[in-house]
Amino acid sequence: MLKHYLYCFFIAMVPIVELRGAVPVAVAFHAADPAFNIPLAFVLIAIGNMLPVPVIFFFARKVLEWGADKRVIGKFFTWCLEKGHKGGEKLKATAGRGLYWALLVFVGIPLPGTGAWTGTLAASFLDMDFKKSVAAVMGGVALAGVIMSIISFGVAGGIHALG
Question: What single DSSP character describes residue 111?
Fold first, then answer.
């Protein structure tokens, strides 16, 4: 069973997939084996989703800027830089003075490309305060976790009712 918890933990660390993919996997593991501890899995998922945040905040922008003019990786790194700039500017334009609340909501919307990775990268591009950004991203991860849990348990319950 340890490997199931590790799957959830590592899925939550994957960009784009993040918590949005790890929560349904945890719910599926629980449906297959009720002894699978959902609260423990959710804590591990949240930790896995938040673990890359400091690295992204402090280093991703620098690495992307360094690699933007490299032959093999340049196009992808440039795309990431443009996505980060666009996301940051859009967030800033929409939010005004409520930038950290907007960051929380942005990360909390459970859609691909709106998770902790993109939100943290946008915060880095906007030179937002690290501690406040981490708090906003953590709140967004919690919000996304609640939303994905409701959706996942609803779908699992519906499937169970059909079976």
Answer: S
| Residue 65 near residue 82, CB atoms below 8 Å | no
Are residues 145 and 104 in contact, defined by beta-carbon separation less than 8 angstroms?
Answer: no
> At 109, is the secondary structure helix, strand, or coil?
coil
pLDDT at position 133: 95
- The H-or-E segment that residue 69 falls in is none
Give 110-139 pLDDT, tens digit per residue: 887 789 998 998 899 888 999 999 999 999
Can you read off the two tokens belonging to residue 43?
A: 């804590």
The two tokens of residue 51 are 């673990």
User: Could you tell me the residue range of the domain that residue 157 belongs to?
Assistant: 2-162
Give me the number of domains the chain comprises: 1
Helix, strand or coil, per DSSP, at residue 37: coil
H helix or E strand, kind and range, residue 71: none
Calculate ∠ Cα 56-120-85, nearest 5°. Answer: 100
Task: Please count the CA atoms within 13 angstroms of the CA of 103 that sit on its side-chain side.
Answer: 32
Q: Specify the DSSP element, H or E, that contains 73.
A: none
Position 35 confidence tier, pLDDT thresholds 50, 70, 90: very high
**H or E stretch covering 126:** none
Quick one: the chain helix, strand, coil %, rounded to 5? 80, 0, 20
